[in-house]
Every structure is written in C-alpha cells, then in structure tokens.
Specification:
Strand content: 15-25%
Number of domains: 2
Structural class: alpha/beta
Number of strands: 15
Low-confidence stretches: 1-18, 63-76
Helix content: 40-55%
CATH architecture of the largest domain: 3-Layer(aba) Sandwich
Oligomer: single chain
Shape: globular
Mean pLDDT: 89
C-alpha cells in the first residue's frame, strides 16, 4: 500500500452514490481527480466504449441502461454489468492514467459491478483486441514507467516486501486458511469447497516437497518463508530447514508457529535476502517468490539457486506465469498492481523461466500447471475477505483499502479464469553440461 505526502481532495462517491471521506494523505491519487485535458478524456471515452463493445458486458450509467453494449452471441443468460456512478470521473482517470486510473476509479467508488469477477474476466479474455491495433501505438500516452525507487536492490526489495507482507498478520489471518498459506492450493476436484482449502494447501506443499525429494536428513533451503507452514511440514518429514524472508511480521509469527509445532530444533528462520544466503543445500523450495524478484534480478535469483544447490540437489519452484508477449508489454510499465499491491514485481513467462534457469546452469525436468486451482483459491480468499469486512475495518483498514483489496483479489481471480495467468510447479536440477559456478 502506498502512503504519500498530504494532498487536498474532495470526498469520493461510494457505491451507488453514497459518499465517504477519502484520506488525502493515505490515498492522494484517489482523493483527487487527475489532470487530463478534455481531448484526452474524450479519446479515452471513445477507446473505452470501443473496448467494452467487444466484450459480453452491459453498461449502466447514472441509473439508465445505455443500450450501447448488448451481450454478443457468445454470452448466455444475463450479461455481467458494469455500473458507472460517475462517468465523467471514470473517463477522466483513464484518460490521465490508463489502467491505473481504472483501478483508482474503483477505489474511489466511481464504478461497481454486479459480478466483479465476471466483468474483469470478460475484459481479460478480450485483452488482446480491446484496443484497435492503430491505437496501440499510443500506449505510451497512458502508461507510466515503473518508479526507480521500486527496484529490488538489496534495500529496495526489503521496502517492497514490507509494503505488502507487513500490513498486518491479523489481516491475512482473516481470509487465509489456518495454516496461513498465501499461494495457490491444489484441489482434488473443481469447483472447490471452502472446507477443502486447508487440505488443498497441504497437498500443494507436499507435492513441492515430493518434487524436491525432501525427507529425513534433507538440508532444505526455503526462499520466502510466508508464515512457516511449508517449513513445519518439511521438518515433520525429518528435514533440517533454513527459511529466509524479508518480512519482519512474517518472520516473527513464523518463529512462534514453528515453536508451537515443536520443530524449532529443525527449522531456522532468518531475516535475509536470498542473495545473502550462504551454504549448500540438498533441496531448495521457493513458492511464488520469483514474482517479487523483478526482471532485472531474475539472473541473480537463478544464479543464487545454482550456487546454493549441493551436487545432486533439486529445486522446486511454484511460479505464476503469463504469456511472453504480455510479459514484454508490461515489463517496464507501472501498473495498478505494482502501484498499490506488489511494488517492484513482475510475473514471468514460461519462456523467461526456461531462459534464465538455463543460463544459470539449471534444467527444468517437470512443469505442471494449476491455473484453475488458483482461480478457486482466490475465490475462497475473496469470499472470506468480504465476509470479514467489519473485522478488517476494526483492524484500521478504511473503505478505500477494502475496495482496493477486493479489486486485487477479483482481478487476480479473473486473470486465472480467463487464462491470462497460470501457475506452475517446476522441478529443476543442475545441468551437467553447464560449468559449475563459483562457490
């Protein structure tokens, strides 16, 4: 979450016109409308109308059905509806800041949806043809470069991780399973039931530990501790675990959970960057951590994996992926997600994972996808989060934050439901043909 200097601004309109106060210190770019010329706003409106006309969506504006976007033949039943409470503000934000403005407009309560995931899924499925090809050259007029301060240097990475993972352990406990596992589960059947989540998270962890052949006596390195559930399950197999994180909140709770599980003698938790880890390990496991590394440091990440891997060792990764073309298009772009949710991060493509691992002297020997499972995981998290709205507010998170978090979870779920995103479990081993790096 971004906290910026004070900036005066009006109250934003809430759902269906109900006003609420937006803190201009905490949310400066939500509290005020951005500067955008009438021309840019008009162009944005035309592009948005053209884009939405190519989706199975309906638009309601200021209470009256526009009739502009009837559902096409691919739609069955009632089409999902996007409700524009303040069309002028909506188009002005998009005219100024593109998709960042789209997200900030939702945070400000200027639009809603009868089914947020369905609306976002429809947009994601048509992502490649929403904007006419001749206008794609104008992408730079609405996109922003990633801030230099978001780079994942040794200092920057710690700041970026803290901005998300140090929000509040109590917040995450409200919507995650009791084991506090914050990554895709693997279910036995889809759609999933709420009471399947814990078992599905354990199934995911156990599959990764199996991929890495973790058992009695294994020297295991975990990059990205989370709240300690994987380390605990590995220790219960008899492994000796070093797990590293940059989140102080996660580290402190993980240490307590590991002690409560009675495995402190087999698990060490350190507040340490993966680039500063020393030693040799029979197995390395890293779950959805590479997304936070940043493309600039992927080489350093895979080089570290190879450097830390003992002869005959195995790496097991779980990674969110997107298509290579989409990754290249967003690599240098400051997005709504990078601004408000995951600063400094970038989702890699499978091609990028293969290229970077090969360059570091690693070879992928297993690659399995579970995109549909992540969609269901996110659905359950989102339902839990929305069901705990009062408890989230009691922790001090205001309405803008809650709408931001709802959009983040729905946006992510839509990515997996549409196929825009996938999640992979990979097994990597040292490539015998590659020269061994310095130790």
């Amino acid at each position: 979450m971004t906290v910026s200097p004070p900036s005066a601004g009006p109250a934003a309109a809430g759902p269906h016109g109900a006003p609420w106060s937006v803190d201009p210190v905490r949310w400066p770019d939500v509290a005020r409308l951005p500067r955008a010329s009438a021309l840019r706003t008009a162009v944005a409106r035309r592009i948005v109308e053209h884009a939405l006309a190519r989706t199975p969506l309906r638009i309601r504006s200021t209470g009256a059905h526009t009739g502009l976007f009837p559902a096409p033949a691919e739609g069955h039943g009632r089409a999902p509806t996007l409700h524009l409470h303040d069309p002028a503000a909506f188009h002005r934000r998009i005219g100024a800041d593109g998709l960042i403005g789209f997200g900030e407009s939702y945070m400000a309560g200027e639009w809603d949806a009868d089914d947020l995931v369905a609306v976002l899924t429809a947009l994601a499925r048509h992502a490649d043809d929403l904007v006419p090809a001749p206008l794609r050259r104008l992408r730079g007029a609405w996109s922003h470069r990633r801030p230099a301060l978001d780079r994942n240097t040794l200092g920057g990475a710690r700041v970026n991780i803290r901005r998300h993972y140090d929000l509040s352990n109590d917040l995450f406990a409200l919507f995650l399973d009791p084991g506090l596992t914050y990554s895709s589960a693997v279910f036995t059947t889809l759609p999933a039931r709420a009471d399947d989540l814990t078992a599905a998270q354990h199934r995911k962890i156990d599959r990764l530990l199996d991929l890495a052949a973790v058992g009695p006596g294994t020297r295991l390195l975990e990059i990205g501790t989370g709240w300690g559930e994987l380390a605990i399950r590995a220790a219960n197999r008899g492994a000796h675990v070093l797990t590293v994180t940059l989140s102080e909140e996660q580290r402190d709770l993980a240490v307590r959970r590991i002690a409560a599980a009675g495995v402190s003698d087999r698990v060490t938790v350190e507040l340490r960057d993966y680039r500063r880890v020393e030693g040799r390990f029979d197995a390395i496991v890293s779950v959805e951590m590479i997304e936070a590394v940043g493309a600039e440091y992927w080489s350093a990440y895979f080089t570290a994996l190879r450097r830390l891997l003992a002869p005959g060792g195995i790496v097991a990764l779980q990674a969110i992926t997107m298509s290579h073309a989409r990754m290249l298009a967003t690599a240098r772009t400051h997005t709504w997600i990078s601004k408000y949710v995951f600063p400094g991060g970038l989702i890699p493509s499978r091609e990028a994972l293969a290229r970077e691992s090969t360059a570091a002297g690693l070879r992928i020997t297993d690659d399995t996808g579970y995109g549909g499972h992540y969609a269901e995981t996110l659905r359950l998290w989102r339902e839990n989060f929305l069901g705990q709205s009062d408890a989230v507010a009691a922790l001090g998170f205001d309405r803008v934050f809650r709408r931001m978090w709802e959009l983040y979870l729905a946006y992510s779920e839509a990515g997996f439901r549409s196929g825009y995103l996938d999640v992979r479990q990979l097994r990597l081993v040292a490539d015998a043909a590659a020269p061994e790096g310095p130790r």
